[in-house]
Write a structure and sequence with these properties.
This protein is about 30% helix and about 30% strand. With about 500 residues, the protein is of the alpha/beta class.
């Protein structure tokens, strides 16, 4: 029967996901069989398991950090926002319904048995479960029927480590305030405090740490510095979307759609020394990139309207008319076609004109495609012509199908069934495949196409993304071992402290 420990935060983006990934790696390095767990995740970055089920990207990454196969039991409930007040509710890896916030709040109690059944299966199969909370346990308006923070800690018996983000400021107040807003029995569940994302000399904090321990009655088990690690991010709060990038020979502009999803698709491109990759929300930011990418989105029709109203559609069309390269992935691919039709009201109904850069229409149906794939480019055109013959792996997560009389990708899904996907016309290419560039040769081939189009030597070399990620997990574990009192954390895990 597994032991468990839980990381909760004073707020969203306090660094819970990264801390959990690092602890998963540490416990695995120490010889334990480890699983992550987050009962309910709200995020637009998701992943597909080997059995074709959908789970949050953060728990998928934490499983890889733990050296175990990702499973939807590690994230039994996934909420994917479709609007400011509604989300697609995915339970056990399968879409169940789309609900408004109030409707889901009334419904969520019914999910507790399914959440706990998933947890119990992990409990039987692993030595340690590293549990991630959601948001903050001090959201006292959500305390009733809670199964993501203190409610889950009670259900599982997991002791809690509470972390706060010092980079935002006010970390002492947020940690103290969070503790004091909890009921007495909930306060007792917190066995240690972590200050996260610190920059500077930790000795300056010492007087404050001592006073915080006195005020809360909780030990500070570590001050974690702002670690320079490259781990896939959970959602669009990521600093990756706005941070300053290195200047490379090739400029890639990713359109930062309002409901941007699975932007982790492009992380491998950032690792190539020739590449500047930036996220763009305003027409004035676009400039003259070598490649414009339209990424995935949880709501193609709403984001297509936004693209049009923002003025970015006109800029992208001008870019394409000048011979600039354009790539669309999943929802971005759907936008590049002639039209998007929603006869069944999957995204609210109606129809919209697409950008018209690729032939064919997309029609939405209620069934979601979810599968891992592998394949090869059989053809491409224009700037992308040298991609022919390049192999790839990836996954599909999408509603709707796109008419396609001239596919450019030959692939098989995880059942071995052959499929075809993707289109190319001129310097425009689109397909449904997420994770297309995780295989190093595919990322390098794309950049070499762009270098050649600039008259430069195609010298981009393949970076093995899996190897690189494993190195980053080890780097994260090393950073946490140096910053955390692991002896104390093991005592808390074993309920000795």
């Amino acid at each position: 029967m597994a032991e468990s420990i839980m990381i909760q935060g004073t707020a969203s983006n306090a660094g819970k996901s990264l801390l959990c990934a690092g602890l998963c790696r540490i416990f695995a390095q120490d010889g334990y069989k480890v699983a992550p767990f987050k009962s309910q995740n709200m995020a637009l970055n998701s992943a597909i398991t080997a059995d074709g089920l959908e789970m949050g990207r953060a728990q998928y990454v934490q499983a890889l950090a733990a050296g175990t196969a990702p499973s939807v039991d590690m994230n039994p409930v996934l909420l994917k926002p479709t609007s400011n007040v509604g989300s697609q509710v995915i339970v056990g890896g399968v879409p169940r319904s789309t609900m408004g916030a109030a409707e889901y709040y009334r419904y969520k109690k019914a999910l507790i048995p399914e959440v706990m059944a998933a947890y119990r299966r992990l409990e039987e199969a692993y030595d340690i479960i590293v549990i991630e909370g959601a948001g903050s346990p001090a959201e006292i308006n959500l305390r009733q029927d809670d199964f993501v923070n203190m409610g889950l800690s009670k259900l599982t018996g997991a002791p809690v480590l509470l972390c706060g983000d010092i980079d935002r400021g006010g970390v002492f107040a947020s940690l103290y305030g969070t503790v004091k807003l909890l009921e007495r029995d909930e306060q007792e569940r917190i066995r240690g405090l972590i200050i996260n994302k610190f920059r500077g000399d930790v000795e300056i904090l010492r007087p404050g740490l001592g006073q915080l321990e006195e005020l809360t009655g909780k030990p500070v088990v570590g001050v974690v510095p702002m670690l320079d690690v490259d781990i896939d991010d959970e959602d669009s709060l990521s600093a990756r979307l706005s941070q300053e990038q290195k200047v490379g020979l090739i400029d890639i502009a990713v359109i930062r759609l309002p409901r941007l999803s699975n932007f982790t698709d492009f992380n491998p491109l950032e690792r190539l020394e020739q590449v500047t990759l930036r996220y763009v929300r305003d027409p004035h930011e676009l400039g003259s990139p070598d490649l414009v990418i339209l990424p995935g989105t949880k709501n193609t029709m709403d984001d297509l309207r936004w693209l049009r109203e923002s003025g970015l559609e006109a800029k992208i069309l001008q870019h394409a008319e000048r011979g600039g390269a354009v790539l669309g992935i999943c929802g971005g691919y759907q936008m590049l076609g002639e039209a998007v039709l929603d006869p069944d009201g999957v995204e609210g109904g109606g129809s919209l004109r697409g950008l018209g850069l690729l032939p064919g229409r997309t029609i939405f149906y209620g069934e979601k495609t979810r599968t891992q794939v592998e394949g090869v480019f059989t053809a491409a055109h224009g700037i992308f012509a040298p991609m022919a013959g390049v192999s790839f792996t990836g996954y599909e997560i999408h509603m709707g199908e796109t008419e396609n009389s001239a596919p450019i990708l030959s692939l098989t899904d995880q059942t071995g069934r052959p499929k075809a996907d993707g289109q190319s016309r001129g310097n425009v290419l689109g397909c449904y495949i997420h994770g297309l560039f995780d295989r190093g040769e595919c990322a390098a081939a794309l950049i070499n196409c762009l270098l050649s189009a600039r008259g430069l030597t195609p010298e981009a070399a393949a970076v093995d993304w899996d190897t690189y990620q494993r190195q980053q997990y080890d780097k994260l574990a090393d950073g946490l071992r140096a910053a955390l009192d692991m002896n104390q954390i093991y005592r808390i895990l074993h309920k000795e402290a």
